[in-house]
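Write out a record, fold above all:
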Amino acid sequence: MKRWMKNVLIMLFALAFLMPAMAMAGNTAPYSLSRENVEMSRREDLGKVSRFTENRGVYRIAASNEWLYQVRLDSISLKLSLYTPEGRGVLLQENLVKTGEGNNVRLILRQINRRGGMLLQMDQKAVDTLERLGITEIVVADYDLYIQNVYQVAELKEIRSMMNLRETEELCVRGEGDPVTVVDENGVRRLQNP
């Protein structure tokens, strides 16, 4: 089988796999954001992250060099994705860097656009996997590498615990002080400011 044909089949399989997650975010994101009147402009006040290199892994944890709809570390797809406020999936690149504090690792997600206000949606297994891999921080950056939001994995885990999430529920967060949306296959369960 030709390489390009194999890549097309892989992409089609990946899209079919993501459709339920995209539908959840599509139903959830506009609801969670339409309840507030918040400017969705891009941020430049948090600085920039360094340019991505070809070698994006650290401590034997491999990160993909491809544009993806869902984070894939060590060839494991995590249900951790970015969405527009309208609920459309956003292509992202991933990079892992040491934070300089022991063996802590920062996961940087570079979105394909320059827009602010992206929603980060993840299931509970993704939070556990990040913690197991030693990833302590998730940084969402725009295409020009300006930091849009920073999430601490320990805080995400605490929010999950505080909200008594069921196994099928996922967190959908946008930024500090914004409501946390809890979603499952039936849509929105509740909104809460942590």
